[in-house]
UniProtKB/TrEMBL annotation, chain A:
<dbReference type="Pfam" id="PF00290">
    <property type="entry name" value="Trp_syntA"/>
</dbReference>
<dbReference type="InterPro" id="IPR013785">
    <property type="entry name" value="Aldolase_TIM"/>
</dbReference>
<dbReference type="GO" id="GO:0005829">
    <property type="term" value="C:cytosol"/>
</dbReference>
<dbReference type="InterPro" id="IPR002028">
    <property type="entry name" value="Trp_synthase_suA"/>
</dbReference>
<keyword id="KW-0057">Aromatic amino acid biosynthesis</keyword>
<feature type="active site" description="Proton acceptor">
    <location>
        <position position="63"/>
    </location>
</feature>
<keyword id="KW-0456">Lyase</keyword>
<protein>
    <recommendedName>
        <fullName>Tryptophan synthase alpha chain</fullName>
        <ecNumber>4.2.1.20</ecNumber>
    </recommendedName>
</protein>
<feature type="active site" description="Proton acceptor">
    <location>
        <position position="52"/>
    </location>
</feature>
TrEMBL record, chain B:
<dbReference type="InterPro" id="IPR036052">
    <property type="entry name" value="TrpB-like_PALP_sf"/>
</dbReference>
<feature type="domain" description="Tryptophan synthase beta chain-like PALP">
    <location>
        <begin position="51"/>
        <end position="374"/>
    </location>
</feature>
<dbReference type="InterPro" id="IPR001926">
    <property type="entry name" value="TrpB-like_PALP"/>
</dbReference>
<comment type="function">
    <text>The beta subunit is responsible for the synthesis of L-tryptophan from indole and L-serine.</text>
</comment>
<keyword id="KW-0822">Tryptophan biosynthesis</keyword>
<comment type="pathway">
    <text>Amino-acid biosynthesis; L-tryptophan biosynthesis; L-tryptophan from chorismate: step 5/5.</text>
</comment>
<comment type="similarity">
    <text>Belongs to the TrpB family.</text>
</comment>
<dbReference type="GO" id="GO:0005737">
    <property type="term" value="C:cytoplasm"/>
</dbReference>
<dbReference type="GO" id="GO:0004834">
    <property type="term" value="F:tryptophan synthase activity"/>
</dbReference>
Length: 255, 388
């Protein structure tokens, strides 16, 4: 269904040119409302293939302290979906990368999933990553997302069974996001052997590209598993970097 | 009804990494919980350790004053002084049957933490309790009790540093430690199967009450009243009466200070449906879906969500939910202490206060059963400071 999705094309484009696709994650309004869009434009300029815009939530249960603190800072500045959509209306035409929203379900539910899908289409957002919306709970929304060509991007982990991987694969997602650790964002990784085996299983099950995230901060981490990964997502490491006042350009140079 | 749902409410809104341990728990709820061996274990531990059955007490003095018959289900007389122990002993036994060696819990006021530490000590399990840093300061005696029984208390510094943040921290910890740890959730909230599991374990309250009412009065009660924070004592009391259509079920929520700008904890009465902590239910939230801080003089009612089954009972009009403010609860706290020699938990005082405040509309001679979910020793400082 989503094989013609821009997200698939962006990631595949990077892979075809012999590199990993880069997917930076930044909470909307971070490091400040003023600087946020400059950060996005600079990440785009520095070769980000897909950009994950975090929609802040008061209780981000899959995230570690770095993302949680950043999200709460954004909320305190009054960031909400309307603010993000307004910004996108001004800047989307200058952004080459594919765009996805990463956020918890309740703010999306309150906005209205149908209304959200329409607004995403209008604003050029092509996918949703919702860490607390698993397969079974996502089903009721499948149709409205598809109508708006909005991809539901599954997160799977080291403990996801082959049966569940197959069920997710049947959704034909634009890409699949593999959580590299048995933990929250920013957690250090465990056995690369175990991760490599799971990645191989994911690769064999899904037809779409495979992205790896959670706790990824440097290229070296990928060495032994490189062949099973098409894209990398980085959040906590980038947030820490920006928080120290450094530029997106410096961060992207490391990749 | 969809699996894991109560009407439109419930579900399993969690990170995918929590699906396997929830599925494992669901299987244990379906298979171990009803097994003969488990039921026997529960009965024995209930009798020997918890002190079940707890008495049903007719309040003769208070009844005389109010003009209708008030009965108290004395969960305050259960071990550790509250209904919480029914749930933790049950989950601890289940965890042991499942081969887990560690119990994980979150706590606000500390009562559920103490009850979990108690069950863990009795069964020889490790115990780790997450508690908002603010609550750790406010409830130092309960922290000490937990530590005495060998539990490790982890202060949570994130967010509002209260119960909801402790739940977030516990869920995060569980993701990383699911193989050997059982999350002993403290109320009838959270993702499926927790609301069902906690209700099954707490239903002993309603089952005993129903039988005791029939034995002691020859009749069912006309009205059953219980306080609702997350709602575990209330769902445990209500559930065995749900099919008795003539019995009115009243859940009492905390209205806090009562001003329009004040934070409160009346989730069903003042909230809107949304998703928090893995379940679709009524919440205190902004129009944008951010969770609002809550407040109640009763620490155990201070939670911005509510168990999904209560949302369903409200939606289907089988139960009604009313609001009592801090001030009325404090007055009822004093009234019950003086009239009956029973010092109620401030949580339970909300349920007592509802009966007192509604004495004009409750029919003379009717039977009102109130769940006295806990004892009030823990609240003496709060009550003294309130000046009421």
């Amino acid at each position: 269904m989503h094989h013609d999705n821009i997200l698939t094309r962006k990631i595949q484009g990077a892979v075809d040119s012999g590199r990993k696709a880069l997917i930076p994650f930044v909470p909307a309004g971070f490091p400040s409302r003023e600087r946020f869009w400059d950060v996005i434009l600079e990440l785009d300029d520095q070769g980000a293939d897909v950009i994950e815009i975090g929609v802040p939530f008061s209780d981000p249960v899959a995230d570690g302290p770095v993302v949680e603190k950043a999200s709460i800072r954004c909320l305190e500045q009054g960031v909400n979906l309307d603010w993000i959509f307004e910004g996108l209306a001004r800047h989307r035409k200058d952004i080459q990368a594919g765009l996805v929203f990463m956020g918890y379900f309740n703010p999306f539910l309150q906005y209205g999933v149908e209304r959200l899908s329409g607004a995403c289409k209008e604003a050029g957002v092509s996918g949703l990553i919702i860490p607390d919306l698993i397969l079974e709970e996502a089903r009721p929304y499948k149709e409205v997302l598809e109508e708006n060509n909005l991809a539901y991007i599954p997160l799977v982990g080291l403990n996801t069974s082959i049966e569940r991987l197959q069920e997710y694969a049947r959704l034909c997602p634009a890409f699949v996001y593999v959580v590299s650790v048995m933990g929250i964002t920013g957690t250090k990784s465990g056995s690369m052997q175990v991760l490599g085996d799971k990645l191989r299983q994911v690769q064999d099950t899904f037809e779409c590209p495979v992205a790896l995230g959670f706790g990824i901060s440097s290229k070296d981490q990928l060495e032994s598993i490189e062949e099973h990964v098409d894209a990398v997502v980085f959040g906590s490491a980038l947030i820490n970097h920006l928080d120290e006042g450094k530029s997106p350009r410096e961060f992207m140079a490391g990749w | 009804m969809r699996k894991g749902y109560f009407g439109a409410f419930g579900g399993r809104f969690v990170p995918e990494l929590l699906v396997p341990p929830l599925a494992e728990l669901e299987e244990a709820v379906d298979n171990i919980l009803p097994s003969e061996a488990f039921v026997k274990d529960m009965d024995r531990v209930g009798r020997e350790f918890v002190g079940r059955p707890t008495p049903l007490y007719p309040c003769r003095n208070l009844s005389g004053e109010l003009g209708f018959d008030v009965y108290l289900k004395r969960e305050d007389l259960a071990h550790t002084g509250a209904h919480k122990i029914n749930n933790t002993v049950g989950q601890a036994l289940l965890a042991r049957h499942m081969g887990k060696r560690c119990l994980l819990a979150e706590t606000g006021a500390g009562q559920h933490g103490v009850a979990t530490a108690t069950a863990a000590a009795m069964l020889g399990l490790d115990c780790i309790v997450f508690m908002g840093a603010l609550d750790v300061q406010r409830q130092s005696i309960n922290v000490h009790r937990m530590e005495l029984m060998g539990a490790k208390v982890e202060p949570v510094e994130s967010g509002t540093r209260t119960l909801k943040d402790a739940i977030n921290a516990a869920l995060r910890y569980w993701i990383a430690h699911q193989s050997d740890t059982h999350y002993c959730l403290g109320s009838a909230v959270g993702p499926h199967p927790f609301p069902l599991l906690v209700r099954k374990l707490q239903s002993v309250i309603g089952r005993e009450s129903r039988q005791q009412m029939l034995e002691q009065t020859g009749n069912l009660p006309d009205t059953v009243v219980a306080c609702v924070g997350g709602g575990s004592n209330a769902i445990g009391m209500f559930h065995p009466f749900v099919e008795d259509r003539q019995v009115e079920l009243v859940g009492v929520e905390a209205g806090g200070r009562g001003g329009p700008e004040d934070y409160h904890s009346a989730t069903i009465s003042r909230g809107t449906p949304g998703v928090l902590h893995g379940t679709h239910t009524f919440l205190l939230q902004s129009t944008e879906g951010q969770i609002l801080p809550s407040h109640s003089v009763a620490p155990g009612l201070d939670y911005p969500g509510v168990g999904p089954e209560h949302s369903f009972l409200k939606d289907s009009s089988r139960a009604r939910y009313e609001v009592i403010h801090d001030r009325e609860a404090l007055k009822a706290f004093n009234l019950l202490s003086r009239k009956e020699g029973i010092i109620p938990a401030l949580e339970s005082a909300h349920a007592v206060a509802w009966a007192v405040e509604n004495k004009e509309s409750i029919k003379q001679g009717s039977k009102v059963l109130i769940n006295l979910s806990g004892r009030g020793d823990k609240d003496l400082d709060i009550v003294r400071d309130s000046g009421i």
